[in-house]
Amino acid sequence: MRIKQGTLYALRIPFVESFSHATKTRVFSDSIIVRLTTENDIVGYGEGVPRPYVTGEDVDSSLRYMQEHLWPKIAQSDFPKLPPTLDAECCLPVISERLDYKKPSGIIAWNASEAAFELALIDCLLKEQKISLSKVLPPKRLNVIYSGVITAGPKEKVAQIAGYFNTLGVRQIKVKIDGKGDRERLLAVREIMGDEASIRIDANGIFSIEEAVKALDRLLGIRIDCIEQPIARGNVSDLVKLKSKISIPVMVDESLVTVEDAQQLILAKACDFFNLRISKCGGVCKTLRLAELANRAGIRLQLGAQVGETAILSAAGRHIAAYLDQLDFVEGSFGTMLLKEDIAEERVNFGHGGNAPLFGGVGFGINIREECLRKYAVQVIKCGKNE
Question: What does 319-365 look like in DSSP terms, one character per residue?
Answer without folding.
Answer: HHHHH-S--SEE----GGGTBSS-SBSS-----GGGEEEPP-SSBTS
